Amino acid sequence: MDPLSSLPDEILTHILSLLTTKEAASTSILSKRWRNLVAFVPNLDIDDSVFLHPEDGKRERDGVLESFMDFVDRVLDLQGDSPITKFSLKCREGVDSDRVDSWIVKALQRGVSELDLSIDFPYYYYYTLPSELFVSSTLVKLKVTSVYDDFFDDKIEDLLLCFPVLEDLQIANMERANLDVTVSSATLRKLVLSVFGSRSYRNPKSICFDTPNLLSFTYLEMIEEYNNSYSCNVRKKTRNLTCVQLCWQSNPTIL
Fold first, then answer.
1. Phi and psi for 62 in degrees, rounded to 5?
2. Locate the F-box domain: which residues (predicted)?
3. Which of 114, 164, 201, 230 has the most CB atoms less than 10 A away?
4. What are the tens digits of pLDDT across the range 174-211?
5. Cβ neighbour number for residue 19 with a 10 Å cutoff
6. CA distance 143 to 152
């Protein structure tokens, strides 16, 4: 027996959890034992670019995207109801949005505590995150990134009410009206907001914190052109906030 195979299942499962899901799944061909181990990996890292690259043009080949989606379905089916600690999903145009929803819902049903979503669907998809996300009682960390769209229709103050144990919230490419914002959460420790601004559509004038455990707040605004009218007042009702970063950048190519 080789030294690696002599290790206990707990250690091998931990090693597999440090790999991308594609890499971890590839070990299942080694033996039945390795196939069973993949079923209990608590961290899933699914990235369509890892599956579809490095070959240029592979994404456009017939059946390749379908193979990627079938792969994700098989991995989740193989794992059954085993708990998930972290679920990371990165995908873009061409992936079926209904299947994306089903993957996220399955992770939520299995008690995921860390959810990292980078979903780059074009605006004409009119994609919104599944409603099951907003009743999660297990999420401790939520990170959402989109190049093209803002997935959240609710105000951030309403959004936080959905997650009773959330400690880390990171949202990239939000779009918000020129209103005062109140962030209220008893559990939140880290908040990162990256938002759009323009001449006709401005973001929050002020942000008020009622977050007794917040330690870090980062606010990044992308604007068409910077002038002194772009400002954001931060008012805090929190004992422990030690890191505040405010940044405005002009980057028309992103808008």
1. -60, 130
2. 1-38
3. 114
4. 665 555 677 788 899 998 887 765 444 455 556 777 88
5. 15
6. 12
